[in-house]
Amino acid sequence: MVQDVATPAAEEKKALEKSGMLAGKKGIVFGVANDHSLAWACAKELSAAGAELAFTYQVEALERRVRPLAESVGSKFVEQCDLGEDGQIEAVFAKLKQQWETIDFVVHAVAFANKQDLEGHFVDTSRQGFALALDVSAYTLTAVARYALPLLKPNGGSIVTLTYYGAEKVVPNYNVMGVAKAALEASVRYLAADLGEHNVRVNAISAGPVRTLAAMGIAGFRDMLKYVEQRAPLKRNVQAQEVGKTALYLASDLASGVTGEVVHVDCGYSVMGM
Known about the structure:
- The chain has helices at 8-19, 38-48, 60-72, 86-100, 127-152, 175-195, 221-231, 240-251, and strands at 26-30, 52-57, 77-80, 105-108, 157-163, 200-207, 262-265.
- The protein is α/β, with parallel strands linked by helices.
- The chain has a seven-stranded parallel beta sheet, sandwiched between helices.
- Strand 5, helix 6 and strand 6 (200-207) form a beta-alpha-beta unit.
- The protein is globular and about 50 Å long.
């Protein structure tokens, strides 16, 4: 008889589910676009640790991708929400309050810039393109935090967002998105200061480049992957699952004393100089 041999990843998943690190916890994930998105990588790890999840999708065309993923982790809350509309954000949290009364964490994995603004020179960014990138990629975190706060207040909790090293240093073709991510990271610090009195922590994960649909829209992305692999201390690119594990850590009580931080998950690339 041939016995099944569990892989290290499978064993780790079983151990995580057994530990129930987030058993009894509830949270909402914004930004799942498909099964390769970093938002989904975070959702899988949170669910495996015992959390009950809610999901949103921006437009109806995305529902057919998001709903099956949500259902695969047992989610019973999947609602349309355009984060560019405060009324829709407020409505989603009102429905969450009816269903759960309180939540324990929020994952914000939302960013957008016009394709033409992610190639060429930053100096050519249009006023409209600049405003759009800053609104979607940075301001939406503040809007989500504002409407999430009443549900987080009773027990405290965690808000996690996703950023990138292009907020700190110039990355070719990242352009206006780098400026938007810099605003996002500053927002994390200001929100952490505002919400700390309610025991609500706010942190960002600065993930290295990962092959996602959004990342592939950046000109020269494949070259970026090769460059990071050659120079990162771990001599490889980060995996989406590793980003998800960090979201799990920040959402859990293991990070109870961590707020206002940008945690780099990039195989060490960000520590390198020349």
